[in-house]
Structures are given as C-alpha cells and as structure tokens.
Amino acid sequence: MKAIKLLALSLASTAILSFTPVSKKFIVIDAGHGGNDLGANKNDILEKDMVLKIAQQIKKTSDKAGKYEIILTRSDDTYASLAERTEKINKLNPEMVISLHVNSTPEANTPKSGHEIFIQNTAESKNLAEKLSKKLGECNIREQNLQILKNSKSPAVLVELGYINNTKEREYLNSDDGQREIAQKFAEFINEN
Asked: CA geometry: angle at 93 spanning 118 and 97, to 5°?
C-alpha cells in the first residue's frame, strides 16, 4: 500500500512540475525610429523601414533556436518615444538590449562605410560589443550618452549598421539578402550568449 501511495505521489508531483512554465530569458531588439520619425533617408529609402525589417528577421531567425524570447520594441511602423521604449525595456528586464540604426553623414554621398557600436559605461555592455564586433566584423566601439543606453538598466548596445548615404551599403542594407545575412549574424551572436 505504501508503494502505491508513493507512486501516486510521485506521478502527481511529476505532472505538476511538467506543467510549470520554464521562465524564458528575454532579449530586446529595438528597431530605431518608426512612424513619423523616419530616421536617416536617401532616395526614398528610410532608416526606420530597414531596421524594422532586420529586427523582424532577427526575431524570426532567433526564435527557431528557442534559447531566448526575442521581444521587439516595435513590430510595425509605429512611433514610440525613447522614454516609452526604455520603460518597456526596464519592465522586461532582458538579458541584453540591441538597438538598430543606420548611419548618415552630412554630404550627399559618403565614402565612409562599416558599422559602429555604441555602449554604456559598463563592463557588460563593452563585453557584448566586443563579441558582437567579432561576429559582424571588427568595428569602432565607443561609449555614447544616448537615451536607450543611458536609461536601460540591462546591458545594452546601439549598432549603426552602415551608411545610408554610401550607395553600396544602402543597397545591401535595403536588400532581402543583406537583411537576412545581417539578421543571421545577430541570431548567431544571440544564441552563442
């Protein structure tokens, strides 16, 4: 009789534990700008559109592995203030925050190319940036007092993906293949952490 009670208790506890949700860890991808905030633009190609497509592709690619739940600060062409974005980020308390942007210079066309990573004044943010730089290709990493970085309580980086006023980079960043390749690199980076 004791054995039957122990077996029943064991089965009951196994059933209860198997329905206990496993708490997933969050990673926030912030697609800069949105809505009436176009960001940088050139030849009717808009920063807000490129970074949103790349963010959506990162979520799609990363969700396949299932290690983290990817949360986007915006999943469509809507505007949220920087304060609203950082409030959302801080409520989620993610493992990391990656804010996506596209660079621009004052001239019509620039020979400048490549990405940059801006960081918080923390060792965690610098560590993320160094790992991400290895994945994307070595780049300039520097501390910057930007709202997302300054007000996010979680480790955060802001990545300028390239220059919209560099013809070759604009075409790459705006192409389906380019967006998939960039998203794949971010997904690999996320899943390695």
From this structure: 25
Under 8 Å between Cβ of 129 and 71: no
Can you tell me the distance from the alpha carbon of 99 to that of 89, in angstroms, rounded to the nearest whole number? 11
H or E element at residue 22 = none
Q: At what angle do helices 167-174 and 47-63 cross, to 10 degrees?
A: 50
Which among 141, 155, 140, 26 is positioned nearest to 92, based on CA atoms? 26
What's the pLDDT tens digit per position in 133-151?
A: 999 999 999 999 999 999 9
Contact 136, 19 (CB under 8 A): no
Q: Which of 17-21, 65-69, 89-93, 172-176 has the lowest mean pLDDT?
A: 17-21
Torsion (CA) 124, 125, 127, 129 in degrees, nearest 10: 160
Measure the CA–CA gap between 106 and 187, rounded to whole angstroms.
32
